[in-house]
Amino acid sequence: MCARKKRNLTTYGLLLLVLHLLASSCTKDDSTVSYNDYCYIKSVTLGTVKRVVEKRDRQGDVVSTIRTSFAGSMYAMTIDHRNNTIENRDSLPYGSQLYAVLATITFDGSMVAYREKGSNGEWTAYNSTDSLNLTTPLELYTVSNDAKSNRIYTLKVNVHRQEGDSLYWKQCESEVEPLTGMTDMKSFVLNGKLMVLGQKASGIVLAERNSTEAQGSWESEQLTNLPYETDLQTLRQQDGTLYISTSDGRILSSTDAKDWQQMGAIYTAGLTLVEKTANYFYAISEGRLIRSTDAIAWEDDALDTKADFLPETGIRALTLRQTNGSDRIVMMGQRSDCTNTVVWNKMWNDGWKAEEKDATWIYFPFSADNTIPCPRLQYLNLLPYDGKCIAFGGASMDESRKALDVIYISQDYGITWRPGTELHLPALLEGTEGCITSTVDKNNFIWIITNAQVWRGRLNRLGFAQQ
Q: What range defines the domain where residue 392 resides?
């Protein structure tokens, strides 16, 4: 039951209440009628909501306007009777139009009236056939059947302020001194810091940014003990430890990216580390794909086709956890006899059918069923993002594409690659010359570093609070 609060009604509200009581007293029933003091809202359900979304290109110009609608009932309104508030925890999509929305309000009491919150204007009797302006919060006024109790709720409808499927960029820094003149860069996140390894005249150096937040500062570059033969693009991370390979057959590891120690034994030939999982090191050496549990003893891993199609240079890889619990390595790279990037996959699910030790590497050939391969790009960047694989980089080898002009997206683990229509790269970086490196942090921000510039962007919906 409601606490008995003394509230002043406007003339309209009093008239509405009197009419209700008179109608009740005119019934021809000799039985005694008792009225309770219940006054509370049971539920609020939104009807159809219109939505208008403007699609923009990477320069910010409107290219199309999409008008749709959706059932507001999909977004539950939560009622807090202690604080007398009603709102949707899961915000409505960006572009939702709330100027005229039908709402079904069920309640216990004699009436519900509403007005704009904070207006102190007259109350309007609620009618389920009348549309409400929900662009600003409303006050909902309820009165009990015995006219002795009342309650006022605040109704607020939350709408996302950003288009969920758009990616917006911010330039965090430019002309970063530790990054100036750095070549063959490799970026990553370690211990909450954005880090970049790269070549300079003094050797392989490390640049550290003290945060992955929008505001941060860079420390002076530090010389590492990585040898000249290190292939920085083979840097892999597993459970907080970094691994990297050298052209003379070594695997090195580090927990701080500054001090590196050799693991296992020196291999008999040059190694290109492909990936490090919890169980294995995977590497390519002399046209063979090999694996090892300890970086000492190596064995050939199983391939579904000839090793002739393994990548030779520019090898990139990532490991994804699929929704069904399976793990998958996506490996990409270049071959001198291929005009596009070659792609291999290895998939397993430990403890269920195919375990990692038994899984076979699968080659995705170019065919009539695969007409959208990833082009050969200089400084190829391969990232896991939003459950997909994304790729971008410098100019294409055939000069048909400029540097950083498009993000290629694969939803089938590297088989097909389509230029993104919603996900754009920073327009100011198009045509950039020089090394490009990128990484993704735990908050789903993509970081791009090139020419001593640092950019940060995120798909809007990946930043929405999860309720």
A: 167-463
